Each structure stands twice: as structure tokens, then as C-alpha cells.
Amino acid sequence: MSQASTVSLTRYLLEEQRAGHINADLRLLIEVVARACKSISIAVGKGALGGVLGDAGSDGEASINIQGEAQKKLDVLSNEILLEANAWGGHLAGLASEEMDHSLPIPDVHPRGNYLLLFDPLDGSSNIDVNISVGTIFSVLRCPEGVTTPGDEHYLQPGTAQLAAGYCTYGPSTMLVLTIGHGTHAFTLDREIGSFVLTQRDMKIPEETREFAVNMSNQRFWEPPMQRYVGDLLAGREGPRGKDFNMRWVASMVADVHRILTRGGIFSYPLDSKCAGKGGKLRLMYEANPMAFLVEQAGGAASTGRQRMMEVPPTGLHQRVPVFLGSKAEVEAAVRYHVEAD
Ligand code: P6P
Q1: pLDDT for 64
Q2: Closest CA to 43 of 77, 70, 72
Q3: Are 197 and 8 in contact, with CB atoms under 8 Å apart?
Q4: What structural domains does the chain harbor?
Q5: Which residues are CB-contacts of 297 (< 8 A; sequence separation ≥ 6)?
Q6: Any atom of ligand 1 within 6 Å of the Cβ of 251
Q7: What is the 253 CA–ligand 1 centroid distance (Å)?
Q8: Contact assessment for residue 256 and residue 198, using Cβ atoms and an 8 Å cutoff
Q9: Could you point out which of 1, 165, 207, 230 has its C-alpha 20 to 30 Å from the C-alpha of 187?
Q10: Residue 139 CB–ligand 1 contact under 6 Å
């Protein structure tokens, strides 16, 4: 790709600012997040050579986060990279992370901005030690007017309030996929010049699909409508759906969603009796909502199985929800199984 024809992330964001789609502060915030993702990509890419694989914690004691999950060293390192990059960035009023119990207002010794940044610093980290793609997921909200020291309650805004959302997938290549509400676009990290370069403008998810992504080992724990829905997928062309389906499950949401944004499909992490008491497995504020924004901007759909994901009224920073997202017609089909059963 010739240098002259390439559109860098910086150029794309400047063009969006000139089009009036974002202001300079939001543009610069996204640049800070992208730079942090480049640092994370370098750390992840070193693998065993970086001395950061394996579980965090010391003296044989695992470090457990608020999710009750063992933290990987790279979870902690990725979180620190994002905190450090944004602490002095000057565009945030506060930030919230999957790895931190509570949100963090930007200390008043640093310049502050009008935005709230939420992120899962390294999603899918259980895959790191087996060299499978992982990623960073982020979401940007506006800090409520007049709030200079935001608390957890100020982050509890529905997905429709997001100003920007994206993920960075650390796979064979490092890709940043971003929406600011004007389409979903993919940028590939050119390691030789250290810039993200636009490689897929205006991604579009095919409306129909023959591919589903779910952890089938949970089948016996699903609600009856989910059992029926997946049973009909597995029945193939002889069944009520009248076509055969393929299945993929990476167990890294970023990798599964990236495949769906690229070639279609439906991703689901439904309620199951193992986590029903918690509302689901995946987190609304920094997993489901940013992915829902990206997917909807690419012509897809995102639902809890009973409600549009981005209209779920948040009740907690680490709230969990059931997730169905991807090809619009297939998500609508899955929702029908649930709504008709209620
Ligand atoms: P399971 C990773 O831990 C994660 O949060 C998502 O990235 C992924 O889709 C899901 O959990 C995988 O869950 O139960 O299949 O390991």
C-alpha cells in the first residue's frame, strides 16, 4: 500500500473533526488510547520472552480481581499502561476498568477533560498463555455537566450515550476497530512506522449468516429458549431453519466479534444457571455496550435476548448481561425464540 494513499488513524480522526463528527478533545483521547494499545501490543507480542505470561500475584498466591477471576500478569500490566497513558492525557474526568473495583477520577494535579473512559484492558486473557488472540475493549461517555470528580454512579449511562467505542485485537496483526457513531472502521498497525493505517472503511456485517459462536459446553445450563434456538441451528437443513450452520468459539470476545464484523455470524453468551444469579457472564459497560455500538454501526444488531443491548439501563459498573450480537436477521431470530417463550 503506497504511503501516499494510506489514511492513518490520525488523518481519519482529523477528517472526522473537520466534518464536525468529533471535537479535538475526543480526537486526542482516542489517539491516547490507540498509543496505549500499541504499548500493550508490544508487551503481548513478546510472549514468554517478556516475562509477563502466567498469573499475577506473589508467593504462589493468585491475584483475584473484582470479577472473582485470577488476574494474569498481562491483565495488570495492560491496565497500568492504560491508566498511565490517560492520567496525564488531559482529556478525561475519570476512568473505569474491569480490573478495578471502583472508577478512578483523574487527580486534580493532572489536566482534566469532559470524558469518561471505560475499558477491559485485556479481554480473553485466559488465552494468552496458549498464544491465542486477545484484545482491549474501550468505551467513551461524556462526564455529566458540572461533575468534576465523577463517581461510579456517573458512569451508569446506557449504551446509546456512548460517544466512541472500539477494540484492539492482538492477533497475527494488531488491529484497532473504532466507531465514533459514523460507521465502524478498522485500522491495522504498521509496525515499521508505528501507525495505525485504515484498512477496512465502513465495515458491514452480512444480514444473514450460517455461522454461530457459543460455548457449547454450557448447553445443559441454558434456559429452554436457548436450548431450542441452538438445537434448531444444529438440526441444519433437515430442521426448522432449513440450512446448515457452522460453529466457531475462540473464547476471546474480541476475536469472535472481529470475525463476525469481518464475515458475519452470531455471537452469544446467554444466561446459564451457572451465572444466572449474576445476570450473565459478560459485562455490560465495557464489553457488551462497546461491542454493541460497533456492531450496530456496521449494520448488525445486539441484544440481551429480550432487549436492545444499548437500551439496558445500567445499575452497576460491573453489571453482567446475556449477549447476542452479529448478523441482524440471526440476532432477531434468536430474540424471537426468547420473546415467544416469555
Ligand atoms: P468461556 C474471556 O474471559 C471472556 O470474558 C470473553 O472474552 C469470552 O467471550 C468469554 O469470556 C469466554 O468464556 O466461558 O467460554 O471461557
Answers
A1: 66
A2: 77
A3: yes
A4: 3-200 (3.30.540.10), 211-341 (3.40.190.80)
A5: 179, 181, 182, 183, 184
A6: yes
A7: 6
A8: no
A9: 207
A10: no
Stretch 5-33: mean pLDDT = 96
Query: 120: annotated binding-site residue?
Result: yes
SS (H, E, C) the chain: CCHHHCCEHHHHHHHHHHCCCCCHHHHHHHHHHHHHHHHHHHHHHHHHHHCCCCECEECCEECECCCCCECEHHHHHHHHHHHHHHHCCCCEEEEEECCCCCCEECCCCCCCCCEEEEEEEEECHHHHHHCCCEEEEEEEEECCCCCCCCCHHHHCCCHHHCCEEEEEEECCCEEEEEECCCCEEEEEEECCCCEEEEEECCCCCCCCCCEEECCHHHHHHECHHHHHHHHHHHHHHHCCCCCCCEECCCCCHHHHHHHHHHHCCEEEECCECCCHHHCCCEEHHHHHHHHHHHHHHCCCEEECCCCEHHHCCCCCCCCEECEEEECHHHHHHHHHHHHHHC
Residue 334 or residue 278, greater confidence: 334
> Stretch 69-94: mean pLDDT, rounded?
85
pLDDT per residue over 197-242, tens digit each?
A: 999 999 999 999 999 999 999 999 999 999 999 999 999 999 999 9
The fraction of the chain above a pLDDT of 90, given in percent, is 81
- Tell me what the mean pLDDT of segment 286-312 comes to: 98
Ligand 1: residue whose CA is nearest its atom 10? 251
In this structure, which amino acid lies at residue 251?
A
Verify whether ligand 1 is closer than 6 Å to residue 253 (CB atom): yes
Residue 38 annotated as lining a ligand binding site: no
pLDDT (tens digit per residue) in 55-67:
777 666 667 666 6
Nearest 5°: CA angle at 316, between 227 and 282? 35
CA atoms within 13 A on the CB side of 274: 11
- Beta carbon of 252 within 6 Å of any ligand 1 atom: yes
Question: What residues form DSSP beta bridges with 188?
Answer: 175, 197
- Ligand 1 neighbourhood includes 123 CB (under 6 angstroms): yes
Annotated binding residue 124: yes
